[in-house]
Amino acid sequence: KIPLFAIQIALMKNGELILGVSNAPLLRELMYAEKGRGAYWNDSKVSVSSIRELKKSYMLFGGVEYFEKQNLLPNLISLIKETYAHRGIGDFWSYHLLAQGKVDIMVEAQTKIWDIAAFKVIVEEAGGLATDIYGNPVNVNTNSFLATNRNLHQEVLKYFS
Predict the structure, then answer these.
(1) Distance between CA atoms of 109 and 90, rounded to whole angstroms?
(2) What is the mean pLDDT of the chain?
(3) From CA 104, how far away is CA 148, in angstroms rounded?
(4) 15 bridge partner residues
């Protein structure tokens, strides 16, 4: 009975993600983006935050057990200590908040392409950056995910390299 679920659809053409849609019907939130055309939340254009310092950033992260399975829990904890605020929320809503500029960083140690494909397009069209947690481009084999407001991306990557 928790209304935090969404349907995500993405379109990949010639290996490039070009369209992303995330619909959370019970929250009445529809996010969508097309490469080169911006990102939208319920027909209002959105953009990521402009925060430039980790100590002022708000970070969300996926399941701690996945960081532990990947031997990345110490990395996550080190990063958490440098942020202003943090929560283990995970899932679609984290990316909705990131694209709207309400949080600055979202990181997941284990995921599948169908869970992140739409958000790569949405976050980047909102002005952010999305890669795996090592800085590699997202592709069908990607199994971790880092999405940021772009300003913080390189600094966050240092915690996982």
Answers:
(1) 11
(2) 96
(3) 6
(4) none
For residue 145, which phi and psi values (nearest 5 degrees)? -150, 135
Give the whole-angstrom CA distance, residue 32 versus residue 52.
Answer: 25
Exposure string of 71-81, with b = 16+ CB inside 10 Å and e = fewer, is ebeebbeebee
CA–CA separation, 13 and 157 (whole Å): 27
Would you state the structure tokens that stand for residue 137, as one six-digit string?
């481009």
Q: What tokens appear for 26 in the block?
A: 């019970």
Query: What pLDDT was estimated at residue 89?
Result: 87
**Confidence (pTM):** 0.96
How far is the first Cα of the chain from the last one, in angstroms, to the nearest whole number? 39
pLDDT tier at 90, thresholds 50, 70, 90: confident
- CB atoms closer than 10 angstroms to residue 113: 17
Report the distance separating Cα 14 and Cα 153, nearest Å.
Answer: 26
Looking at residue 52, its pLDDT comes to 98
Of 102, 99, 97, 95, the C-alpha closest to 145 is: 95
Cα(23)–Cα(153) distance, integer angstroms? 26
* C-beta of residue 155 within 8 angstroms of C-beta of residue 52: no
